[in-house]
Amino acid sequence: QLQLQESGPGLVKPSETLSLTCTVSGGSISSSFYYWGWIRQPPGKGLEWIGSIYYSGSTYYNPSLQSRVTISVDTSKNQFSLKLRSVTAADTAVYYCARHHQLENWFDPWGQGTLVTVSS
Amino acid sequence: DIQMTQSPSSVSASVGDRVTITCRASQGISSWLAWYQQKPGKAPKLLIYAASTLQSGVPSRFSGSESGTDFTLTISSLQTEDFATYYCQQTKRFPLTFGGGTKVEIK
Fold first, then answer.
1. d(C-alpha A39, C-alpha B98), whole Å
2. Do the Cβ atoms of B99 and B4 come closer than 8 Å?
3. Contact call for residues A36 and A100 (beta carbons, < 8 A)
4. 3-state class of A18 per DSSP?
5. At CB < 8 Å, which residues of chain B contact A?
6. How confident is the model at residue A64 (pLDDT cuts 50, 70, 90)?
7. Smallest Cα–Cα separation from B45: which of A98, A27, A38, A62?
8. Burial letters for B66-102: b for 16+ Cβ neighbours within 10 Å, e otherwise?
9. What is the pLDDT of residues A24-54, one digit of tens each?
């Protein structure tokens, strides 16, 4: 059974870089049929797609965040990572990683999510 | 970007009720739509993709349909475990976008 688990600091200072890693277990990140994505949810609000990556390293970003986001993959560790630069309080959210179907663009399964708070 | 508008934002219902949630796309997306269920403190769970295809393991009381740019999620007989927030997502093109959510509450 495929499982995803986010990890990283829960508190980041304004203007610094948010860094999270998603570890995939129970399956290979090098699947031909899937991307691997990041989605976030500010407290009490809706869902926002951040971006996705293919195991080859091809990336797709939300234009609203593209200037600040980098997603990378490490197939040897079965992990992919998110970096979001120059964060502000508006970046406070629960960050989820998820498997992203390459053709149909749905997300399943999701990690449990990790709350990242931006505060000094 | 394709905007997704859900209605209502919340609905109160009783166990056994039929519940309908609507999602409207700002432009044509054919059947490129997914529905998710999210319970408090939990990650979203995929229910339906391609507008009407039930994900494996999802109870048959859930169904999806489409009419033009309007999409509907129906729960035929609401169960206790169905009280949650539901989101639609257009899967047509990047950037992928979600509706604002519909909270199904206990009446």
1. 10
2. yes
3. yes
4. strand
5. 1, 32, 34, 36, 42-46, 49-50, 55, 87, 89, 91-92, 94-101
6. very high
7. A98
8. beebebbbebeebeeebbbbbbbbbbbeebbbbbbbb
9. 999 999 999 999 999 999 999 999 999 999 9
